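Quick one, probably user error.
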């Protein structure tokens, strides 16, 4: 009998960097845990508090497991208290990512109280008060979400 070593992977998904396609593939694997309960760019204290509680529950569950993949919107250091074997971060050319993100917010993202509460730019973009040029000048867009995701 061959013994396979445990494999634990932390896989932060930076917005608009192929994450939806990867998530579709990963959802069919039983040892994958999706963490979209605490997006690092949220500004709502209510959502942040809820997300922290959900993430703590996930971390408690993972401590007892040998194999897992955590995938979702979280900073690269969010699960550093766990012992893991590999961390994967996919990047995309910054201008392409910014264009995709702007059009996603403008045309696809649900326009509701929750999305407006979580991200300050959603309302102005949905209402036609923020151009792509203005969006591209936001610090988290200009610096590729560095302050949120790339804490390596």
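Nope, works fine. Designed sequence:
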């Amino acid at each position: 009998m061959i013994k396979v070593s445990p494999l634990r992977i932390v896989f932060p998904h930076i917005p608009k960097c192929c994450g939806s396609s990867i998530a579709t593939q990963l959802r069919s694997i039983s040892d994958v845990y999706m963490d979209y309960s605490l997006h690092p760019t949220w500004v709502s204290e209510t959502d942040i508090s809820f997300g922290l509680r959900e993430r703590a529950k996930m971390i408690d569950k993972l401590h007892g497991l040998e194999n897992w993949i955590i995938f979702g919107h979280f900073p690269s250091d969010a699960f550093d208290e766990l012992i893991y074997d590999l961390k994967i971060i996919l990047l995309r050319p910054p201008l392409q990512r910014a264009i995709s993100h702007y059009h996603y917010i403008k045309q696809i993202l649900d326009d509701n109280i929750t999305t407006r509460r979580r991200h300050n730019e959603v309302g102005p973009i949905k209402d036609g008060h923020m151009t792509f040029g203005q969006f591209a000048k936001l610090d988290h867009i200009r610096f590729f979400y560095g302050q949120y995701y790339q804490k390596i």
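The first helix runs from residue 19 to 26.
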